[in-house]
């Protein structure tokens, strides 16, 4: 079963989260689709090809080699095919138009048995979640789910009266 936390962020908040991960972990960020394999790797969460593109955070202390393929659509976009049991955390950004929260997600054993040290990876995941909860300035419970807000997102939701 996977693990996740719901998190509201703005572009400014995304920069803070991105900076935290880069300063504290040896990691690479990937977006879900790009025009070339090289463009799959990004430096910032706000550099995605599409605004709603999930971001995959790969922690380099774990052995993994991404495998790539290309869509058969008109755009012929590239993507990573072997994410399901990879040592990555998926980050989905907030969609302010629909009011949908973002999330930080680790598939854990959801899609099969990972071939990396699950306990070690879980410690990293827990450290990130602890940091998120510590740095969240707002929290709302909706349908028994805790929604966390970083500072700019909290101000944004108060101004927009989202909840």
Can you give me a brief rundown of this structure?
With 163 residues, this protein is α+β, with helices and mostly antiparallel strands. The chain has helices at residues 11-24, 118-135, 151-160; strands spanning 3-8, 27-31, 41-42, 55-59, 68-70, 78-80, 88-92, 102-106, 138-142, 145-149.
Q: Can you walk through the features of this model?
A:
- The chain is of the alpha+beta class and 163 residues long.
- It has one domain (3-155).
- It has helices spanning 11-24, 118-135, 151-160, and strands spanning 3-8, 27-31, 41-42, 55-59, 68-70, 78-80, 88-92, 102-106, 138-142, 145-149.
- It has an 8-stranded mixed β-sheet with strand order 3-2-4-7-8-1-10-9. Strands 5-6 form a two-stranded antiparallel ribbon.
- The mean pLDDT is 92.
Helices and strands, with pairings:
Blueprint (H helix, E strand, L loop, with lengths): L2 E6 L2 H14 L2 E5 L9 E2 L12 E5 L8 E3 L7 E3 L7 E5 L9 E5 L11 H18 L2 E5 L2 E5 L1 H10 L3
Parallel strand pairs: 1-10
Antiparallel strand pairs: 1-8, 2-3, 2-4, 4-7, 5-6, 7-8, 9-10
Task: Write out key terms for the chains shown.
alpha+beta, eight-stranded mixed β-sheet, globular, two-stranded antiparallel sheet, 3 helices, 163 residues
Number of domains: 1
Secondary-structure-based class equals: alpha+beta
Number of strands: 10
In whole angstroms, how far apart are the ends? 29 Å
